[in-house]
Amino acid sequence: MSRSQFIGMLDAYARTDRTVQLWLRDDDAIEPTEALSRLLGLSEGWDAPLTIAAIPAHATAALAGLLRQLPLISVAVHGWDHLNHAPTSEKKQELGLHRGEAVVLSRLAEGLERIRALFGDRAVPLLVPPWNRIAPALVGHLTSLGYEALSVFGPERKEAPLRLVNTHVDIIDWKGTRGGRAMDILYAEAAARLEASETLKTSLGILTHHLVHDEAAWDFLDDFFDLTANHPACRWVAVRELMNIP
């Protein structure tokens, strides 16, 4: 039912000349793997741009060599080393204030510099906080470090001090199987995102983590690409377009 709901929303968009700007963000890449190759193959096969959120401290030259050859790929900055600095009483967070503001901002500046050095013109000045969490006090400093946008999870807040390019559907069941979530639930969330929007262009960000994908996760991606590839309301876009970068 939820899949047909989503198709119904897409059809409604098409009838009113509205567009769904689809984008895919995959987190935690540090090196080439079989799972990453499978994801890159989907991106190439469906001609769908893909944003890789790479961990600067651990990203390898081999990953850079692979991704720099692929025109559909953008590489964002996934924190610095993806280590938790919050106490056990709090949710995991690398980009909190637990180490002090100056330390965290220094690491974020270093992260952007390293991603640019490794990935060249594939790099984008987009910060993807590990665990989708960042202390609000840090956000206002990001532009001074060279970042042009921030990507977390959930609806974009209008009062943010810089552009937000968020994801809205996370395909992984983190609190349960730690594999792919049920397809009906994912389509229901996608449909809800479209239903809540009142703009002519609505972004819909899909969040993946290739290192933990099971067949349920891959099955959803196969189905989602197949459903959206030729629908008149859908456009797969590079994150640069959502960031307004030429």
UniProtKB/TrEMBL annotation:
GO terms for biological process: carbohydrate metabolic process. Gene3D superfamilies: Glycoside hydrolase/deacetylase. This is Polysaccharide deacetylase. It comes from Aliirhizobium smilacinae. The lineage of its organism: Bacteria, Pseudomonadati, Pseudomonadota, Alphaproteobacteria, Hyphomicrobiales.
